[in-house]
Amino acid sequence: MRKRIEELILEAGRKARAETSDEPEPQYTGDVEFPIECKVGRGLEGAVASTTKVGYVNGARGWLVYRGHNIFDLAAYSTYEETAYVLLFGALPTKSQLDEFKQELKSKRGVPAPVMEVLRQISPKTHPMSALRTAVSMLGNLDPNADDTSVEAETKVAIQLIAMFPTLTGAVARLRWNKEPLQPNPELDHAANLLYLITGDAPDELKERVLDIALILHADHGMNASTFTTMVVNSSLSDMYGSVTAGVASLKGPLHGGANERVLYDLEEIGEPENVDAWFAKADATKRKVMGFGHRVYKAYDPRARILGPLAGLLVEHHPHEAKLYKIATRLETVVCGKMAEKKIFPNVDFYAGLVYRAVGIETAMMTPIFAVSRVAGWTARALEYLGDNRIYRPRAIYTGPIHLDYRPMGSRG
Ligand code: SDX
Predict the structure, then answer these.
(1) 346 exposed, middle or buried (CB, 10 Å; 0-12, 13-18, 19+)?
(2) What per-residue confidence (pLDDT) applies to 175?
(3) pLDDT value of residue 414
Protein backbone atom coordinates (compact mmCIF):
# COMPACT_ATOMS: atom_id res chain seq x y z
CA MET A 1 0.00 0.00 0.00
CA ARG A 2 2.89 2.36 0.82
CA LYS A 3 4.30 1.80 -2.66
CA ARG A 4 0.85 2.42 -4.21
CA ILE A 5 0.57 5.74 -2.36
CA GLU A 6 4.07 6.77 -3.44
CA GLU A 7 3.28 5.92 -7.06
CA LEU A 8 -0.01 7.81 -6.82
CA ILE A 9 1.80 10.96 -5.62
CA LEU A 10 4.52 10.72 -8.25
CA GLU A 11 1.84 10.23 -10.91
CA ALA A 12 0.11 13.40 -9.66
CA GLY A 13 3.46 15.19 -10.00
CA ARG A 14 3.92 13.95 -13.57
CA LYS A 15 0.40 15.08 -14.41
CA ALA A 16 1.09 18.50 -12.90
CA ARG A 17 4.21 18.92 -15.01
CA ALA A 18 2.45 17.76 -18.18
CA GLU A 19 -0.45 20.16 -17.68
CA THR A 20 1.60 23.08 -16.46
CA SER A 21 1.08 26.37 -18.24
CA ASP A 22 3.92 28.38 -19.69
CA GLU A 23 2.33 31.57 -18.48
CA PRO A 24 5.06 33.50 -16.69
CA GLU A 25 4.58 34.73 -13.17
CA PRO A 26 6.70 37.52 -11.71
CA GLN A 27 9.35 35.77 -9.68
CA TYR A 28 10.85 37.54 -6.72
CA THR A 29 13.81 35.71 -5.28
CA GLY A 30 15.36 36.35 -1.90
CA ASP A 31 17.82 38.83 -3.39
CA VAL A 32 15.30 41.40 -4.59
CA GLU A 33 15.72 44.99 -3.41
CA PHE A 34 12.83 46.89 -1.85
CA PRO A 35 10.93 48.86 -2.95
CA ILE A 36 9.81 46.75 -5.89
CA GLU A 37 7.03 47.65 -8.26
CA CYS A 38 3.76 45.90 -7.65
CA LYS A 39 0.10 46.70 -8.21
CA VAL A 40 -1.97 46.22 -5.10
CA GLY A 41 -5.63 45.27 -5.26
CA ARG A 42 -8.37 44.75 -2.66
CA GLY A 43 -7.39 42.27 0.02
CA LEU A 44 -3.75 43.30 -0.61
CA GLU A 45 -3.84 41.27 -3.85
CA GLY A 46 -0.45 41.54 -5.51
CA ALA A 47 1.23 43.20 -2.52
CA VAL A 48 4.69 41.93 -1.57
CA ALA A 49 5.15 41.77 2.19
CA SER A 50 8.69 40.38 2.47
CA THR A 51 11.37 38.38 0.78
CA THR A 52 11.68 34.77 1.87
CA LYS A 53 13.60 31.57 1.35
CA VAL A 54 11.05 29.44 3.23
CA GLY A 55 8.67 28.55 0.43
CA TYR A 56 7.42 29.44 -3.01
CA VAL A 57 4.02 29.22 -4.68
CA ASN A 58 3.82 29.71 -8.43
CA GLY A 59 0.12 30.21 -9.02
CA ALA A 60 0.22 30.17 -12.81
CA ARG A 61 2.08 26.87 -12.99
CA GLY A 62 0.69 25.19 -9.90
CA TRP A 63 4.02 24.81 -8.16
CA LEU A 64 4.59 24.56 -4.43
CA VAL A 65 8.13 24.46 -3.09
CA TYR A 66 9.45 24.33 0.49
CA ARG A 67 13.07 25.51 0.76
CA GLY A 68 13.72 24.43 -2.85
CA HIS A 69 12.03 21.01 -2.60
CA ASN A 70 8.90 20.41 -4.65
CA ILE A 71 5.82 19.24 -2.79
CA PHE A 72 5.47 16.01 -4.77
CA ASP A 73 8.90 14.79 -3.64
CA LEU A 74 8.25 15.80 -0.04
CA ALA A 75 4.84 14.11 -0.01
CA ALA A 76 6.25 10.94 -1.58
CA TYR A 77 9.42 10.59 0.47
CA SER A 78 9.44 12.86 3.54
CA THR A 79 7.71 12.89 6.92
CA TYR A 80 6.06 15.77 8.74
CA GLU A 81 8.93 15.98 11.23
CA GLU A 82 11.51 16.19 8.45
CA THR A 83 9.41 18.75 6.57
CA ALA A 84 9.05 20.91 9.69
CA TYR A 85 12.84 20.72 10.13
CA VAL A 86 13.36 21.80 6.51
CA LEU A 87 11.01 24.75 6.94
CA LEU A 88 12.56 25.89 10.23
CA PHE A 89 16.24 25.29 9.51
CA GLY A 90 16.48 25.63 5.73
CA ALA A 91 17.76 22.26 4.47
CA LEU A 92 17.14 18.52 4.67
CA PRO A 93 18.52 17.15 7.96
CA THR A 94 21.15 14.45 8.29
CA LYS A 95 19.99 11.28 10.03
CA SER A 96 21.39 12.37 13.38
CA GLN A 97 19.89 15.87 13.04
CA LEU A 98 16.49 14.37 12.27
CA ASP A 99 16.72 11.84 15.11
CA GLU A 100 17.62 14.63 17.52
CA PHE A 101 14.78 16.86 16.26
CA LYS A 102 12.24 14.05 16.54
CA GLN A 103 13.44 13.31 20.05
CA GLU A 104 13.15 16.98 20.98
CA LEU A 105 9.58 17.11 19.62
CA LYS A 106 8.64 13.98 21.57
CA SER A 107 10.11 15.39 24.77
CA LYS A 108 8.06 18.58 24.42
CA ARG A 109 4.62 17.09 23.74
CA GLY A 110 3.36 17.37 27.32
CA VAL A 111 0.98 20.26 27.98
CA PRO A 112 0.98 22.01 31.40
CA ALA A 113 -1.96 21.08 33.64
CA PRO A 114 -3.38 24.66 33.85
CA VAL A 115 -3.90 24.64 30.07
CA MET A 116 -5.86 21.40 30.34
CA GLU A 117 -7.87 23.01 33.15
CA VAL A 118 -8.75 25.93 30.87
CA LEU A 119 -9.79 23.55 28.10
CA ARG A 120 -12.10 21.76 30.55
CA GLN A 121 -13.86 25.08 31.23
CA ILE A 122 -14.71 25.56 27.56
CA SER A 123 -18.18 24.48 26.45
CA PRO A 124 -18.19 21.43 24.13
CA LYS A 125 -20.31 23.56 21.79
CA THR A 126 -17.42 25.99 21.26
CA HIS A 127 -15.76 25.64 17.87
CA PRO A 128 -12.59 23.53 18.27
CA MET A 129 -10.50 26.26 16.63
CA SER A 130 -11.66 28.75 19.27
CA ALA A 131 -10.72 26.30 22.01
CA LEU A 132 -7.31 25.73 20.40
CA ARG A 133 -6.77 29.49 20.14
CA THR A 134 -7.46 29.92 23.86
CA ALA A 135 -5.13 27.04 24.74
CA VAL A 136 -2.22 28.53 22.77
CA SER A 137 -2.78 31.89 24.41
CA MET A 138 -2.82 30.25 27.85
CA LEU A 139 0.45 28.46 27.10
CA GLY A 140 2.05 31.89 26.65
CA ASN A 141 0.85 32.98 30.08
CA LEU A 142 2.67 30.06 31.68
CA ASP A 143 6.05 30.60 30.04
CA PRO A 144 8.19 32.95 32.16
CA ASN A 145 10.42 33.58 29.12
CA ALA A 146 7.58 34.38 26.73
CA ASP A 147 8.72 38.00 26.36
CA ASP A 148 12.21 37.05 25.18
CA THR A 149 11.80 37.82 21.48
CA SER A 150 15.30 36.89 20.37
CA VAL A 151 15.39 34.53 17.38
CA GLU A 152 16.98 31.90 19.61
CA ALA A 153 14.24 32.05 22.26
CA GLU A 154 11.43 32.23 19.70
CA THR A 155 12.86 29.18 17.89
CA LYS A 156 12.54 27.21 21.11
CA VAL A 157 8.92 28.32 21.43
CA ALA A 158 8.27 27.36 17.79
CA ILE A 159 9.52 23.81 18.37
CA GLN A 160 7.53 23.58 21.58
CA LEU A 161 4.35 24.68 19.80
CA ILE A 162 4.87 22.22 16.92
CA ALA A 163 5.29 19.46 19.52
CA MET A 164 2.29 20.49 21.62
CA PHE A 165 -0.32 21.17 18.92
CA PRO A 166 -1.29 17.47 18.58
CA THR A 167 -1.71 17.19 22.35
CA LEU A 168 -3.90 20.30 22.46
CA THR A 169 -5.90 19.16 19.44
CA GLY A 170 -6.37 15.69 20.90
CA ALA A 171 -7.62 17.19 24.18
CA VAL A 172 -10.06 19.49 22.36
CA ALA A 173 -11.35 16.57 20.26
CA ARG A 174 -11.96 14.35 23.29
CA LEU A 175 -13.37 16.94 25.68
CA ARG A 176 -16.06 17.73 23.09
CA TRP A 177 -17.39 14.23 23.74
CA ASN A 178 -16.76 14.22 27.49
CA LYS A 179 -13.80 11.89 27.08
CA GLU A 180 -10.60 12.22 29.09
CA PRO A 181 -7.66 13.71 27.18
CA LEU A 182 -4.85 11.19 26.63
CA GLN A 183 -1.14 11.42 27.34
CA PRO A 184 1.09 11.60 24.23
CA ASN A 185 2.49 8.22 23.21
CA PRO A 186 6.32 8.37 22.94
CA GLU A 187 6.33 5.19 20.83
CA LEU A 188 4.50 7.00 18.04
CA ASP A 189 5.72 9.55 15.49
CA HIS A 190 3.98 12.90 15.01
CA ALA A 191 1.09 11.88 12.73
CA ALA A 192 0.38 8.58 14.49
CA ASN A 193 0.51 10.27 17.90
CA LEU A 194 -1.96 12.91 16.69
CA LEU A 195 -4.43 10.27 15.58
CA TYR A 196 -3.93 8.31 18.79
CA LEU A 197 -4.58 11.42 20.90
CA ILE A 198 -7.85 12.01 19.05
CA THR A 199 -9.24 8.50 18.63
CA GLY A 200 -7.53 6.57 21.43
CA ASP A 201 -6.21 3.97 18.96
CA ALA A 202 -2.73 3.72 17.50
CA PRO A 203 -3.43 3.88 13.75
CA ASP A 204 -2.49 1.26 11.20
CA GLU A 205 0.34 2.02 8.78
CA LEU A 206 -1.96 3.26 6.01
CA LYS A 207 -3.79 5.78 8.18
CA GLU A 208 -0.54 7.01 9.70
CA ARG A 209 1.12 7.49 6.30
CA VAL A 210 -1.88 9.25 4.80
CA LEU A 211 -2.23 11.66 7.71
CA ASP A 212 1.51 12.29 7.60
CA ILE A 213 1.25 13.20 3.90
CA ALA A 214 -1.68 15.53 4.62
CA LEU A 215 0.40 17.26 7.32
CA ILE A 216 3.32 17.67 4.89
CA LEU A 217 1.00 19.21 2.28
CA HIS A 218 -0.47 21.78 4.69
CA ALA A 219 2.77 22.88 6.39
CA ASP A 220 3.46 26.11 4.49
CA HIS A 221 1.87 28.17 1.75
CA GLY A 222 3.25 31.59 0.97
CA MET A 223 1.76 34.71 2.44
CA ASN A 224 -1.66 33.21 3.20
CA ALA A 225 -3.91 35.06 5.65
CA SER A 226 -2.94 33.14 8.81
CA THR A 227 0.79 33.25 8.04
CA PHE A 228 0.61 36.96 7.33
CA THR A 229 -1.40 37.46 10.53
CA THR A 230 1.22 35.58 12.55
CA MET A 231 3.99 37.65 10.98
CA VAL A 232 2.21 40.96 11.52
CA VAL A 233 1.72 40.25 15.22
CA ASN A 234 5.29 38.99 15.60
CA SER A 235 6.69 42.04 13.80
CA SER A 236 5.69 44.30 16.69
CA LEU A 237 7.99 42.12 18.88
CA SER A 238 4.94 40.90 20.75
CA ASP A 239 5.67 37.20 21.47
CA MET A 240 5.47 33.94 19.53
CA TYR A 241 2.55 32.59 21.56
CA GLY A 242 0.46 35.68 20.79
CA SER A 243 1.48 35.57 17.14
CA VAL A 244 0.47 31.92 16.77
CA THR A 245 -2.74 32.54 18.73
CA ALA A 246 -3.61 35.12 16.07
CA GLY A 247 -2.62 32.66 13.33
CA VAL A 248 -5.08 30.10 14.72
CA ALA A 249 -7.83 32.75 14.83
CA SER A 250 -7.19 33.66 11.21
CA LEU A 251 -7.06 30.08 9.96
CA LYS A 252 -10.49 29.36 11.46
CA GLY A 253 -12.38 31.43 8.88
CA PRO A 254 -14.38 29.67 6.12
CA LEU A 255 -12.59 31.64 3.42
CA HIS A 256 -9.32 30.14 4.68
CA GLY A 257 -8.63 26.91 6.65
CA GLY A 258 -12.23 26.64 7.85
CA ALA A 259 -13.23 25.69 4.30
CA ASN A 260 -12.17 22.04 4.77
CA GLU A 261 -14.96 21.53 7.31
CA ARG A 262 -17.52 23.44 5.21
CA VAL A 263 -16.79 21.27 2.18
CA LEU A 264 -18.02 18.25 4.12
CA TYR A 265 -21.19 20.08 5.16
CA ASP A 266 -21.80 20.97 1.49
CA LEU A 267 -21.25 17.40 0.32
CA GLU A 268 -23.65 16.12 3.00
CA GLU A 269 -26.17 18.78 1.98
CA ILE A 270 -25.99 17.68 -1.66
CA GLY A 271 -26.68 14.14 -0.43
CA GLU A 272 -26.57 12.16 -3.69
CA PRO A 273 -24.35 12.37 -6.79
CA GLU A 274 -27.40 13.01 -9.00
CA ASN A 275 -28.22 16.17 -6.99
CA VAL A 276 -24.92 17.89 -7.80
CA ASP A 277 -25.92 19.73 -10.97
CA ALA A 278 -29.09 21.22 -9.50
CA TRP A 279 -27.31 22.12 -6.25
CA PHE A 280 -24.55 23.93 -8.11
CA ALA A 281 -27.00 25.73 -10.43
CA LYS A 282 -28.73 27.14 -7.35
CA ALA A 283 -25.43 28.05 -5.66
CA ASP A 284 -24.29 29.80 -8.84
CA ALA A 285 -27.58 31.69 -9.23
CA THR A 286 -27.45 32.91 -5.62
CA LYS A 287 -23.70 33.72 -5.81
CA ARG A 288 -22.99 31.25 -3.03
CA LYS A 289 -19.27 30.47 -2.81
CA VAL A 290 -18.57 26.79 -3.34
CA MET A 291 -16.29 25.75 -0.51
CA GLY A 292 -12.96 24.21 -1.46
CA PHE A 293 -12.77 25.97 -4.84
CA GLY A 294 -10.86 29.03 -6.01
CA HIS A 295 -7.65 30.57 -4.78
CA ARG A 296 -6.09 34.02 -4.64
CA VAL A 297 -2.82 32.76 -6.11
CA TYR A 298 -3.51 29.51 -7.99
CA LYS A 299 -4.85 29.98 -11.46
CA ALA A 300 -3.87 26.36 -12.12
CA TYR A 301 -4.79 23.16 -10.27
CA ASP A 302 -3.56 23.31 -6.65
CA PRO A 303 -0.78 20.68 -6.46
CA ARG A 304 -1.94 19.67 -2.98
CA ALA A 305 -5.41 18.86 -4.28
CA ARG A 306 -3.76 16.81 -7.04
CA ILE A 307 -2.43 14.56 -4.29
CA LEU A 308 -5.32 14.68 -1.82
CA GLY A 309 -7.98 13.91 -4.48
CA PRO A 310 -6.55 10.52 -5.54
CA LEU A 311 -5.64 9.75 -1.90
CA ALA A 312 -9.25 10.36 -0.87
CA GLY A 313 -10.37 8.08 -3.72
CA LEU A 314 -8.07 5.34 -2.48
CA LEU A 315 -9.10 5.65 1.16
CA VAL A 316 -12.86 5.74 0.73
CA GLU A 317 -12.87 2.31 -0.94
CA HIS A 318 -13.78 0.69 2.38
CA HIS A 319 -16.10 3.43 3.68
CA PRO A 320 -19.48 3.34 1.88
CA HIS A 321 -20.73 6.72 3.12
CA GLU A 322 -17.47 8.52 2.36
CA ALA A 323 -17.34 6.69 -1.00
CA LYS A 324 -20.68 8.31 -1.87
CA LEU A 325 -19.41 11.72 -0.72
CA TYR A 326 -16.33 11.21 -2.88
CA LYS A 327 -18.56 10.54 -5.91
CA ILE A 328 -20.43 13.75 -5.13
CA ALA A 329 -17.12 15.60 -4.81
CA THR A 330 -15.72 14.41 -8.13
CA ARG A 331 -18.97 15.32 -9.90
CA LEU A 332 -18.92 18.73 -8.21
CA GLU A 333 -15.34 19.25 -9.39
CA THR A 334 -16.36 18.49 -12.99
CA VAL A 335 -19.35 20.84 -12.83
CA VAL A 336 -17.59 23.75 -11.07
CA CYS A 337 -14.44 23.57 -13.19
CA GLY A 338 -16.53 23.35 -16.36
CA LYS A 339 -18.73 26.29 -15.47
CA MET A 340 -15.93 28.46 -14.07
CA ALA A 341 -13.17 27.60 -16.52
CA GLU A 342 -12.83 31.23 -17.58
CA LYS A 343 -12.20 32.33 -14.01
CA LYS A 344 -9.57 29.56 -13.66
CA ILE A 345 -11.28 28.06 -10.65
CA PHE A 346 -10.06 24.65 -9.48
CA PRO A 347 -10.29 22.65 -6.26
CA ASN A 348 -7.95 23.99 -3.57
CA VAL A 349 -6.22 22.12 -0.74
CA ASP A 350 -9.39 22.12 1.38
CA PHE A 351 -11.62 20.35 -1.14
CA TYR A 352 -10.43 16.76 -0.71
CA ALA A 353 -8.66 17.13 2.66
CA GLY A 354 -11.86 16.60 4.64
CA LEU A 355 -12.63 13.32 2.91
CA VAL A 356 -9.13 12.12 3.71
CA TYR A 357 -9.54 13.09 7.38
CA ARG A 358 -12.93 11.42 7.59
CA ALA A 359 -11.51 8.20 6.18
CA VAL A 360 -8.77 8.12 8.85
CA GLY A 361 -11.39 8.63 11.59
CA ILE A 362 -11.44 12.39 12.27
CA GLU A 363 -14.81 14.08 12.71
CA THR A 364 -15.71 17.07 10.55
CA ALA A 365 -15.56 19.70 13.33
CA MET A 366 -11.90 18.77 14.01
CA MET A 367 -10.65 19.26 10.46
CA THR A 368 -9.42 22.84 10.74
CA PRO A 369 -7.39 22.08 13.92
CA ILE A 370 -5.64 19.34 11.91
CA PHE A 371 -4.68 22.04 9.39
CA ALA A 372 -3.33 24.12 12.30
CA VAL A 373 -1.29 21.18 13.67
CA SER A 374 0.54 21.22 10.36
CA ARG A 375 0.63 24.95 9.55
CA VAL A 376 2.20 25.93 12.87
CA ALA A 377 5.52 24.93 11.24
CA GLY A 378 5.03 27.38 8.37
CA TRP A 379 3.74 30.17 10.62
CA THR A 380 6.73 29.97 12.92
CA ALA A 381 9.33 29.36 10.19
CA ARG A 382 8.27 32.52 8.38
CA ALA A 383 7.87 34.60 11.54
CA LEU A 384 11.38 33.56 12.63
CA GLU A 385 12.87 34.33 9.23
CA TYR A 386 11.30 37.79 9.31
CA LEU A 387 12.36 38.36 12.92
CA GLY A 388 15.98 37.98 11.80
CA ASP A 389 15.67 41.31 9.96
CA ASN A 390 12.54 42.68 11.57
CA ARG A 391 10.62 45.80 10.63
CA ILE A 392 7.13 46.38 12.01
CA TYR A 393 4.35 45.82 9.44
CA ARG A 394 2.49 49.02 8.85
CA PRO A 395 0.67 49.40 5.52
CA ARG A 396 -1.66 52.29 4.81
CA ALA A 397 -5.31 52.59 3.86
CA ILE A 398 -6.73 55.00 1.32
CA TYR A 399 -9.12 57.23 3.20
CA THR A 400 -12.38 57.70 1.28
CA GLY A 401 -14.42 59.53 3.92
CA PRO A 402 -15.04 63.27 4.33
CA ILE A 403 -12.63 65.66 6.03
CA HIS A 404 -13.06 68.98 7.83
CA LEU A 405 -16.65 68.32 8.92
CA ASP A 406 -18.12 70.79 11.40
CA TYR A 407 -18.49 69.44 14.92
CA ARG A 408 -22.21 69.96 15.50
CA PRO A 409 -23.40 70.25 19.09
CA MET A 410 -25.67 67.39 20.25
CA GLY A 411 -28.74 69.61 20.29
CA SER A 412 -28.48 70.44 16.58
CA ARG A 413 -28.04 66.87 15.23
CA GLY A 414 -31.72 66.11 14.66
C1 SDX B 1 -6.93 28.25 1.85
O2 SDX B 1 -3.89 31.90 0.53
C3 SDX B 1 -3.58 30.68 0.71
O4 SDX B 1 -2.54 30.24 0.35
C5 SDX B 1 -4.63 29.86 1.45
C6 SDX B 1 -4.42 28.34 1.54
C7 SDX B 1 -3.22 27.99 2.42
O8 SDX B 1 -2.63 26.92 2.23
O9 SDX B 1 -2.95 28.76 3.35
O10 SDX B 1 -4.21 27.76 0.25
C11 SDX B 1 -5.62 27.63 2.23
O12 SDX B 1 -7.36 29.16 2.51
C13 SDX B 1 -7.65 27.73 0.62
C14 SDX B 1 -8.94 28.53 0.30
C15 SDX B 1 -10.10 28.01 1.13
N16 SDX B 1 -11.31 28.77 0.91
C17 SDX B 1 -12.36 28.32 0.20
O18 SDX B 1 -12.32 27.24 -0.37
C19 SDX B 1 -13.57 29.20 0.21
C20 SDX B 1 -14.14 29.33 -1.20
N21 SDX B 1 -13.21 30.08 -2.03
C22 SDX B 1 -13.26 31.44 -2.04
O23 SDX B 1 -14.19 32.19 -1.40
C24 SDX B 1 -12.17 32.20 -2.79
O25 SDX B 1 -11.86 31.53 -3.95
C26 SDX B 1 -10.92 32.50 -1.97
C27 SDX B 1 -11.26 33.12 -0.62
C28 SDX B 1 -10.12 31.24 -1.73
C29 SDX B 1 -10.06 33.51 -2.76
O30 SDX B 1 -10.69 34.74 -2.77
P31 SDX B 1 -10.28 35.94 -3.71
O32 SDX B 1 -8.92 35.82 -4.21
O33 SDX B 1 -10.65 37.18 -2.97
O34 SDX B 1 -11.24 35.73 -4.96
P35 SDX B 1 -12.66 36.35 -5.16
O36 SDX B 1 -13.57 35.98 -4.03
O37 SDX B 1 -12.50 37.83 -5.42
O38 SDX B 1 -13.15 35.60 -6.45
C39 SDX B 1 -12.77 36.00 -7.76
C40 SDX B 1 -13.88 35.57 -8.70
C41 SDX B 1 -15.24 36.11 -8.24
O42 SDX B 1 -16.04 36.21 -9.41
P43 SDX B 1 -16.31 37.69 -10.04
O44 SDX B 1 -16.91 38.52 -8.94
O45 SDX B 1 -14.95 38.19 -10.46
O46 SDX B 1 -17.23 37.41 -11.19
O47 SDX B 1 -14.00 34.13 -8.69
C48 SDX B 1 -15.27 33.78 -8.12
C49 SDX B 1 -15.79 35.00 -7.39
O50 SDX B 1 -17.17 35.01 -7.29
N51 SDX B 1 -15.00 32.71 -7.14
C52 SDX B 1 -15.87 31.77 -6.78
C53 SDX B 1 -15.22 30.97 -5.85
N54 SDX B 1 -13.97 31.43 -5.67
C55 SDX B 1 -13.84 32.50 -6.46
N56 SDX B 1 -17.13 31.56 -7.12
C57 SDX B 1 -17.77 30.51 -6.54
N58 SDX B 1 -17.17 29.69 -5.63
C59 SDX B 1 -15.91 29.90 -5.27
N60 SDX B 1 -15.33 29.11 -4.39
Answers:
(1) buried
(2) 98
(3) 82
C-alpha of residue 383 to centroid of ligand 1, in Å:
25
> Dmax of the chain from CA atoms?
79
pLDDT single digits (tens) 22-71: 655 555 554 556 667 778 899 999 899 999 999 999 998 899 999 999 99
Q: Is 32 helix (H, G, I), strand (E, B) or coil?
A: coil
Spatial distance between the Cα atoms of 7 and 15, rounded to a whole number of angstroms: 12
Backbone Cα Rg of the chain: 22
Q: Is 295 a catalytic residue?
A: yes
Is 92 close to ligand 1, i.e. is its CB under 6 Å away? no
pLDDT band at 372; cut points 50, 70, 90 = very high
Q: In the β-sheet with 63-66, what is the strand arrangement from edge to edge?
A: 55-58, 63-66, 69-70
- Annotation says 350 is catalytic: yes
**Distance (Å, whole) CA 163 – CA 111:** 10
Q: How far is the CA of 301 from the centre of ligand 1 (A)?
A: 13
SS percent in the chain: helix, strand, coil, step 5: 60, 5, 35
Q: Among the atoms of ligand 1, which is closest to the Cα of residue 294?
A: 25
Q: Is 350 in the pocket of ligand 1 (CB under 6 A)?
A: yes
pTM of the model: 0.96
Please name each of the domains of the chain with its CATH number: 1-392 (1.10.580.10)
Average pLDDT, the chain: 95
Cβ of 43 less than 6 Å from ligand 1: yes
Q: Is omega for the bond preceding 144 within 30 degrees of 0, making it cis?
A: no
Strands 69-70 and 55-58: unpaired
At residue 17, the pLDDT reads 84
> What pLDDT band is residue 272 in, cutting at 50, 70 and 90?
very high
User: Does ligand 1 have an atom closer than 6 angstroms to the CB of 256?
Assistant: yes
323 has pLDDT over 80: yes
Span 204-231, average pLDDT: 97
Which has the closest alpha carbon to 64: 231, 220, 229?
220
Reduce the DSSP state of residue 272 to 3 states and report it: coil
* Residue whose CA lies nearest to ligand 1 atom number 5: 224
Residues 6+ apart with CB under 8 A from 194: 166, 169, 170, 211, 215, 370, 373
